């Protein structure tokens, strides 16, 4: 249920509505779109209680409308907050007119290697740096990251270039450590329904990049985001990174329809990871441009100075020249849909 107050109504009337809700043991969430207050009630209540409460609220001064949620996700819904959520990140406000381009290697392999990649993608206009310090790998024998040393390397790259860093956290016990270094906490596809981890990042003040699971529906993605918002952290970006289908020509199948569908359902920003979807670097530019055209608020691409010798996901990583070409090609696509990609910082 949500209660919409009349525009510019006195605070005393908002307080009276809140008190009425608390009288039923409910904890309303207050949001303020423009000059209007909206009270959201996400607790489960019976139909009988909802009917009584609705009648009581409609009789109060200042109450404009009382409605039920039509979706099982609530805080993430446009019914609860119709205005797009924007998340300041470096020189970009994700969810606004600007498009965030995040680039970097799949894994932080060494300080020299990461710094070299960071130097190049920063000069070409990347708005954020990506890299894995803790890597979930299909094989237990694959390179699984440098751990805290990798986080420290990324932090030094941020200090040099002024670009925010995005990196994955795998377990609830690691959240505080990763949050001490990273600007954005990434929840990977395999952890999308790790509810203890979702609640832990929900307790932080860090933006969260939530990736769609390999075989998860959009409803399941939204409900996972609900776990984070329900803990008080509204800084969530949803990420379409491809889902598993019967097709074998690509690593995953990029579901571009997810972008406009999510935009219909939620106020949260939506970004796309074409690298993990394609699994082949020659396909990444086309998918990235298609994502921008579909309305994505950002893209994440993997870039490496020597992809063939990368310790993780080299086949899907763009070369530096490939990233340069992509940045040039993205700008007219962004302009065509009324968006911009900010220039590289001087």
TrEMBL record:
GO terms for biological process: aromatic amino acid family biosynthetic process. Residues 94-325 form the DAHP synthetase I/KDSA domain. Keywords: Transferase. It holds the Pfam family DAHP_synth_1. It comes from the Bacteria. GO terms for molecular function: 3-deoxy-7-phosphoheptulonate synthase activity; aldehyde-lyase activity. The keyword Membrane does not apply. Its EC number is 2.5.1.54. NCBIfam families: DAHP_synth_Bsub, PRK08673.1, PRK12595.1. PANTHER family: PHOSPHO-2-DEHYDRO-3-DEOXYHEPTONATE ALDOLASE. This is 3-deoxy-7-phosphoheptulonate synthase. It comes from Dethiosulfatarculus sandiegensis. The lineage of its organism: Bacteria, Pseudomonadati, Thermodesulfobacteriota, Desulfarculia, Desulfarculales.
